[in-house]
Amino acid sequence: MHHPGTNNKVYNKINSKFEWTEDNFNKIKKILKKYPSNKSQSAVIPLLDLAQRQNDGWLSKNSMEKVAETLSMSYIRVLEVATFYSMFNLEPIGKNFVQICRTTPCWLRGSESLSKVAQEVCNTKIGGTSEDKKFTIVEVECLGACCNAPMIQINDEYFEDLDADNFRKLLIDLKSNKSIKKGSQIGRKSSQPERDFNA
Ligand code: FES
To answer: What distances in angstroms separate CA 71 from CA 21, 61, 192, one per listed residue?
Structure first.
């Protein structure tokens, strides 16, 4: 299964450069204060995360070189970390990075139907990016919200208690830039038992 976070190739977009924004540079100064001055390389994960956010959700070669330069470490050490964690994407992704949980609780509650809906609405396969670059869809393992299965993550937000119908509507609304409801789609608070809020 293709996933932009399990890719071992690195590249840049043509003519792309990477320099920290002033805002991120200030964030880096704060991050580095959390570590002893001789252990600043321990900040490689938060800095890769910042670089990915600044670079539209993926890490180009330039951006990882910048992380290495900032932390005075070799590029290969940064690359080792970036290729180890699937949360770091090594190729461009769509505006909405849709991660569909397919582990047992979500699977038992219908995650397969969510994958089908996503492929239909976004008109791309799992691991692919839609032609309009609005969506990249991937399947992932447990995202830690099993109580409200099936669930998915889009960028930094969770969407829970899904079924084929409410997920289809959610994606169509997102496609037309309408606002969408985050969290439980059926009004559940946190992991409240269904019998309590249906009573
Ligand atoms: S199995 Fe889907 S969130 Fe845990």
So the answer is: 16, 16, 44
